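[Discussion] Sanity-checking designs against the backbone

I'm trying to build intuition for which residues belong where. Below is a structure token string of 194 positions. I'd appreciate it if someone posts a full sequence so I can compare it with mine line by line.
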């Protein structure tokens, strides 16, 4: 599973062009941005009208955008208190969450969420002052049955060092800043990993 995550900024047509270009190589796009709800709804509609399928869009956290854009998937932070109730009351919506420890992976598994993002695995510019997960932490995390997606510092070089057991990768800059050929190569390298 390849999951792109938008940069945490105001999104425009430049990002739409990039995500349209790489759409065939990713399974999902998590839209996480500080944009106001009305602007975000307009951007999601424009993304979809430009040819990006709704089935690949996961909205981060915003229930209004989920409903108004008729999306089928939402992603939450690990400490969001709405997750259990939302999952129970919306069995038709795909729910996933970010995790940083086994306690929250266990919670996600118990709630039967679709997958978790787990990280960060390698040093990353988005978390410059935080240490990556240790080998011991990663090994414990990978013992769960829920699909665990590696997040943080993943690229064509670090992919070779990724411990076995992850069901996919997620990232921000790798999908926002790389060209199509580089992402295509990453996808080929991933086939070797699995």
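Best answer:
Here's mine. Compare freely.
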């Amino acid at each position: 599973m390849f999951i792109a995550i938008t940069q945490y900024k105001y999104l425009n047509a430049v990002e739409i062009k990039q995500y349209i270009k790489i759409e065939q190589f990713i399974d999902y796009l998590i839209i996480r941005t500080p944009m106001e709800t009305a602007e975000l709804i307009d951007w999601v509609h424009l993304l979809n009208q430009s040819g990006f399928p709704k089935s690949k869009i996961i909205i981060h956290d915003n229930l209004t955008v989920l409903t108004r854009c008729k999306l089928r998937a939402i992603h939450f932070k690990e400490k969001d208190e709405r997750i259990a109730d939302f999952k129970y009351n919306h069995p038709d919506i795909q729910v996933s969450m970010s995790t940083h420890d086994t306690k929250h992976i266990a919670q996600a598994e118990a709630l039967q969420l679709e997958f978790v993002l787990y990280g960060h695995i390698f040093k990353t510019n988005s978390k410059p002052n935080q240490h990556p997960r240790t080998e011991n932490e990663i090994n414990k995390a990978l013992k769960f049955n829920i699909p665990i997606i590696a997040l943080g510092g993943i690229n064509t070089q670090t992919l070779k060092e990724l411990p076995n057991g992850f069901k996919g990768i997620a990232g921000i800059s790798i999908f926002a800043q790389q060209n199509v050929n580089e992402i295509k190569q990453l996808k080929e390298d991933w086939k070797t990993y699995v």
